[in-house]
Amino acid sequence: MDIITLKQLLLKAWCKETATKGDWTPDNPSLNQCAITALVVQDYFGGDLLRCLMTNGDSHYWNRLPDGTEVDLTEDQFALIEGKPLKNDYVIRERKYVLSFPDTMERYHLLKHLLALAIIQTL
User: Assuming Cys at both sites, which of 22, 33, 92, 115 could form a disulfide with 13, CB separation 3.0 to 4.6 Å?
Assistant: First the structure.
């Protein structure tokens, strides 16, 4: 699995049920998918979970891989919404912390399931 393939598969797996809050549409599939997507990226590639605040008060997650490369598979959502991430001021969050929220845990497991189905469909 490489990062480009993972992004293509996530585009098939993301849905309203995996988004953290309303307003999700197929026109902006990565909207509100950042925390669970960052967890999935970490599943495949390791590294750190990075979190920052956004200009609208929300928060945003992305990844720093073990080689230092930063990867944000949900970054394209910001072209269609008002808030922008303030990535220069971030913290590293432990996986345990991110998964300590029941809603996040549930959405993460659903995304993993839908991702597995997307992988099977490509075989």
Answer: 115
Mean pLDDT, each 10-residue run in order, the chain (123 residues): 96 96 88 97 98 92 98 91 88 98 98 97 86
CB burial class (10 A; 0-12, 13-18, 19+) of residue 104? middle
- pTM here is 0.95
To the nearest 10°, the Cα dihedral for 28, 13, 74, 39?
150
Helix and strand counts by DSSP (H, E) for the chain: 4, 4
52 contacts 89 by C-beta, under 8 angstroms? yes
CA distance 77 to 89: 20
Tokens of 8: 């293509």
